[in-house]
Please model this.
Amino acid sequence: MKPNIAEIKKMIAAATPGPWKWTRKNFEETNSEGGYDVYDLMHWESESLPRNGIAILTAFNDKRGIPIVSAFSPQDARIIEEAPKTISDLCDFAEKQTKEIDAMQKVIKEADEEIERRDAEIDRLRKALIRERDEAMAWDGIGTVNRINEVLESGEALRRDTQQ
Model:
C-alpha cells in the first residue's frame, strides 16, 4: 500500500518533536494513582542539568500492579498508534520502488548496450565508406566520391540525431 506521505507529515508536525528517549524513573516515588512510574518517553529539550523535557508517554503499574501506559497528548498517542502500520507501509512502498528502480536500471543498461552496438556498427560502416571513397578517388573520379561523401554526411547527421 502506498503510504499517505502528506498525512504522515501532518501527524509528525502535530506530535511533540523528537528525538524521544525512554527515561527510567525512580521506583521509590509513587505517582498520583499510588503506583510506581517505571519509564517515561521524553523529548528532552535540554540534556544538561537541570533537565527540561516534555513527557510523551509514561509507563507505570497502578495500585493493583497492573501495567499502564499513558500518553500525554492525543497527537502523540496517534503517531505512536499509527507507527507500526506507517512503518510497514513505508517499507512495502520502498521495496516496491526499489524493484521498479531495478527494472528501470536494467532497461537503461540494455539500451546503453544497444547504443554501443549501434555506434560500433556506424563506426564500422563509416570506415568502410571512407575506404570506398578513397578507392573510388583512385579509380573512378569525383562523381562517386561526392556520392560517398553525401552518405558519410547523412550518417553523421543520423548519429547526432540518435544521441539527442
Q: What stands out?
A: Residues 10 and 131 are 69 Å apart (CA to CA).
